Amino acid sequence: MIIIPAIDIMDGQVVRLKQGEFGKKKRYSTNPVELAISYKTAGFSHLHVVDLDAAKAGKPVNQLLVLDIVRQSGLRVDVGGGLKKEKDIAFFLENGVSAVNIGSLAVKEPEKTAELIQKYGRDRIYISLDLLEEDVRIHGWQEKAPVKWQELMQSLIEAGAKTFVMTDISRDGMLSGVSKDFYQRIQDAFPTVRLIASGGVTSVEDIYMLDSLGVYGVITGKALLEGKLKTEELAEWLC
Q1: CATH topology classification for 2-233
Q2: How far is 139 from 104, CA to CA, in rounded Å?
Q3: Catalytic residues
C-alpha cells in the first residue's frame, strides 16, 4: 500500500476544506512547492494535488504551479480539479504529471472517459468519485449526480478504468477518522480495482485498518499538515 500526501491549492496557497465546502477553508502559510519537496525528503514517492480554483471554475487554473511542484519535487504526482477537456488532460500528461483525476467528466461523459483511458492508458487516468453517503457529488462536490456509485463504477470498469480515488466527503478535512464500512463496501463490491482511499485519514490506526482491507493507496492531507499523523509512524510504507 502507498501513502499519498495531498496538497490542495487555492489562490496559489495550500488550503484544506471541511466536507468540500469552499466557505470552510483553512489556509496554511507553507509554500506548495516547498511542502511537496519536504514530502519527497521524508520518503514519500507519490503526491495528490487538487486545484480547487479549477474545481470551482470548471477548468484548470494553477497549471504552472502544478508543473513547478512536479519538476522540483521529483514525486509521482496525480492531479485533479476542473479537468473536463482533453487538451487540458493532455497538457498535464505531456508535461510530467503521472496521472490525472477525472470526476465530473466520468459521470457526465462516460464514453469520452472510455476514449481517454484507451488513448492515454488506464494507469494514467484515475477515476475520482466523491461520495456523500450514497450520493456521487460532482463539480467540486457542489452538485448531486443522477447515478448510483455502484452502477457508475461498473460501467467505468467495463470501459477499462483501473484506479479509483474514492473520497468520503462526510469525513474529509474533519480529522474524524476513517469509516471502515465505507471502504469495505467498495472493496467487497469491486475487489479487482486499485482503490485509493481519501477522506478523514487521521491516525496510524486508520492506515493499518485500510491496509488490512487491501486498498491500493491512502491519501492524507490535513493530518500530515497539522502533525496529527507523523512521518515516522509511516516508515514501513515509505520508500
Answers
A1: TIM Barrel (3.20.20)
A2: 6
A3: 8, 130
